[in-house]
Amino acid sequence: MVRSLAFASLAVVSLTACEREPLPEICPNIEVGDLVISELRGNNEAFAADWIEVHNTSTSTIDLLGLVVRLRLGNGTIVRFLIRESVELPAGGYLAAGPMEADWLYPTREVPKLFNDVYRGYVEIEGCDDEVLDTVEFLALPSKGTLACGNAQSPPDIDANDDTATGCWCVDESMGGPQLLVGFGSPGEPNRCP
């Protein structure tokens, strides 16, 4: 009996000593339609990196801290990524993100893949309270180039980018990127679809 009371007393002291203010909730203040998925890169023969690009269609800078990117792949895999640092995307800007090494032109080890040779799936971006800000269904990713949506004169929007088989999407196999790599796509820049 004495042992139980001592343990209970210790537990109360321990809980009191560890109390602290709760961490602030990280919640990006983004409206539906302000941020759209604009380019997908995976399953590629020409270049080892995978990425997902987003475009800020709003008229102001958006901080992506707390944004969630979710992949629902055709093999049943669901992967969620949380942006844990403040990343400011200016109005009209593009941002490509993925598991690339710092020295991505000459990687020294295997670069992780987002899509892992899976065909068919969904890419979603989520804001506060699990609100889905944009969803894109892809049926296949090209073996050369990227799936891209829109161009500088006609940027991607939330209504035209839902399905990569229709709307604003094309396969971009043109020259571009660092060192003018063939089929590199246009990460972080306006796309080149007709």
Can you characterise this structure?
Strand 4 (68-73) and strand 5 (78-82) form a beta hairpin. Residues 1-15, 101-109 and 177-182 have low confidence and may be disordered. The termini are far apart. The longest helix is centred in the N-terminal third of the chain and has 16 residues, at 2-17. The strands form 4 sheets. The chain has a 5-stranded antiparallel sheet, with no helix packed on it. The chain is globular, with a radius of gyration of 21 Å. The chain has one helix at residues 2-17, and strands at 35-41, 51-56, 62-63, 68-73, 78-82, 88-89, 94-97, 121-126, 132-138, 146-149, 169-172, 175-176, 181-182. It has 1 helix and 13 strands. The protein is mostly beta strands and 194 residues long.
Descriptive keywords:
194 residues; mainly beta; 5-stranded antiparallel sheet; 4-stranded antiparallel sheet; 1 helix; 29% strand; disordered N terminus
